[in-house]
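Action item from last week, closing it out:
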Amino acid sequence: MRTLSPPELTQADRRLLQERSVELRHPERKAVMQKFVIGCIALCLSLLALEGAARVIVTATDPTEYGSAEADCKFTIAQQAPPKGMKSLILLGTSFTSRGLYPELLQERLREKGIKLDVRSLAYSGCIPLGQVDLLDTAIKHHTSPTAVVLDVSPFWFNHDAKVESIRSVHFEASPRGHLLLPAPPGILARIKREAEIHSYLVRYRDHLRYLLTTIPERIFSSQKYIRIRPNSATHVESSAAGFAPAFTVSNDERMATAMTQHLDRLKQASFNRVASGGKATGQFASRHLDCNVWKPLKNYCDKRGIPIILIWMPQHSVAEAIYQKQLNLTAQQASMAFENIAQENGLYFIDLHEDKDTAHYFDFDHLNAYGAAFTTERLAAILTSPEYKDMIAGRRKQ
């Protein structure tokens, strides 16, 4: 009897049999893969939905980008290019300058003397040296060409911690965009995180979103109808084309006493007073020799670009002078001489404007009001248009 041999299987038949065999042995594998794919798609859609919600919330609530409304204003100004072909005079520093000088008035007085410059104030309250470098660098990257930088100084730098020249404000470092100006840490995960912070609102504004989520229940269920979660900002609302303007209020005894108490507390707790205590605020004012190290980052930056620096000591009430003499054992004349020596030793310029005995010019003991700011701006303009400074700020270097 003749036996029949099995038919030869083709390659396609063998592959089909193998696939059916796998399905018969693992009937759940295909279902698991389908669930995995569906889960990934659902996760991506959820993240997209959260990102969209984050963008809507951030746009609606308008959080600060650089740590404060005033800092946001100054970085916005820094990103605006001056008129084509016009060079700039940049005012840097703290609230002494932001509330003590009118850049528009200074620009007009310079123009009257034949010096056509775009004068802009990038100073804001609490801006320390590395923050000043960030602002100046931002301005230069947006086509600003400074002929000089005017930087305010104050005797409180006699008591600074050595670390202050290499740090930024805590509020600035924690802010959404300020954080992005910091050098990226090494490593792949850090690089991925930085890219997420650049492109994702959900990651970049996570602190702001967390704040909103934690305060919403308190706002809803509080027994107080109009509860204020945040304290009032110290930033003044009066603004001008080149930034925040001084307040018009004239100082009184109550405001002077309050400001003095706050200033002493700030000096005792500030990082630049933690010199002899290993980083702890002891309330002891350990004076140290004032050098140029605190402005070293800005000086190095300007030296590389050939930008001269003009140090100015803004007007301060006699109460401020008494505080510095008591806490630092330093008279106003000694402080002025120290600043002058620093300027000469480091190739800087120094203008002493601190003497202004008119009490109607002050908002508190170390800040001018609008009247004092206008008066001081006129004084500064007269000095900058003198033969000693005129060619330098106009961009005409001596050979």
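Closing note: The longest helix spans residues 29-61.
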